[in-house]
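Case study 2.
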Amino acid sequence: MQELTHYINGAHVKGTSGRFADVYNPATGEVQAKCPLASVAEMDQAVAAAEAAQPAWAAVNPQRRARVMMKFVDLLHRDMDKLAEALSREHGKTLPDAKGDVIRGLEVVEYCIGAPQMLKGDFTDSAGPGIDMYSMRQALGVTAGITPFNFPAMIPMWMFAPAIVCGNAFILKPSERDPSVPLMLAELMEEAGAPKGILQVVNGDKEAVDAILQNEVIQSVGFVGSTPIAAYIYAEGCANGKRVQCFGGAKNHMIIMPDADMTQAADALVGAGYGAAGERCMAISVAVAVGDGTADRLLEKLVPKVETLKVGPYTSGDDVDYGPVVTAAAKANIERLVQTGIDQGATLAVDGRDFKLQGYEDGFFVGPHLFDNVTPDMDIYKHEIFGPVLSTVRVDTYEDGLKLAMDHEYGNGTAIFTRDGDTARDFANRVNVGMVGVNVPIPVPLAYHTFGGWKKSVFGDLNQHGPDAFKFYTRTKTVTSRWPSGLKEGGEFSIPVME
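Prediction:
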């Protein structure tokens, strides 16, 4: 049985708390490793090392810090297959999806190479008589991030890359369900030139999270996960004087208008609804068909596509559409919600309850499910399922569909499929959701824009990556300066006399 470690001050360090979490192979259901769960003392040790290393790193000029990111990008490409295999082994994603996880993080690292431009301040000449004024962006100090299981490469890089390039040290508390890739990323950052102590990886559970929130040295905390935990971390972090950004749950609607290309819409829904077994905060989990005729045409295209999805382990290669969910508990929760949908009157158009994979009977595989005639009062509509379950809601008008997306408590992502530009423009302008796709099912912005939802999907006022990351991981200092006049006249060579 492999025993994983923390990564503190440039070295793999065994856990000392005596507490461990099981790390499963989701395809087989077997425990493949044990992950140490840090104590407060272990977290404090990592923070102390980060605090000692950070001032010298902040004093390095931004161009040299950016060169570390350049080298890090090269190393990510070099080790892409190794990272993807480790990610798939612990999470269950297919290998192409695992590589996508790494690449979307890598793209943020590439954006961070532009740090010298992003960290420039402002200057005002002659703000007053002989007075100049200028501003500087300076590092916060020691920062921290708490990241989820579903993107063990991408989301850590979304946080630590901008934090570090801004001159901060970073404490990463990854998910204890799939911690190997974050440990590998820390090694690569140091190989790229980051000093020891600048990126620490401390594995843990709530005890480690609370240790982050209560440590006075840590200046900011980022989080991605469920809304209840996001609300807790935001409240506790702010109460302890930290800068906090938290991203919570989602229930993403895709509106299908009568004029939409139904083949395109169905293909989009299959990828966005079932990719990564639905374990994405940007997954489309609700298809909103405007008109019964639209719903019928959509289901006619959608049902055979869902019925023929290939589910299997990542070791089957590229010939798999999605793999298992991450734990047995996740599988049980999905199956429970599916049953509530049936009990509450939804039509199960594709029934994946009897799905079994020969040779992998103990794995955490969930067959694809497709519901029709779902209504907003049902649990499968109200709650984030985080599994391969797509719900179809039928509405009479465009306004009814727009209202559904706007009334839901979550506001992470949404999409509309239509050929009509006026409808698309109206939807994009009016919907109260943070990320909108027009004929794009998963509207995750590229690295040079920002990522963030609205409503109960977010706590805080700045988004992830893009320009907002440089604002979040720095604080602005403004200097007003005036120098004594007359010195430029030079020295006096004659004896001074009284006038």
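Residues 28 and 363 are 4 Å apart (CA to CA).
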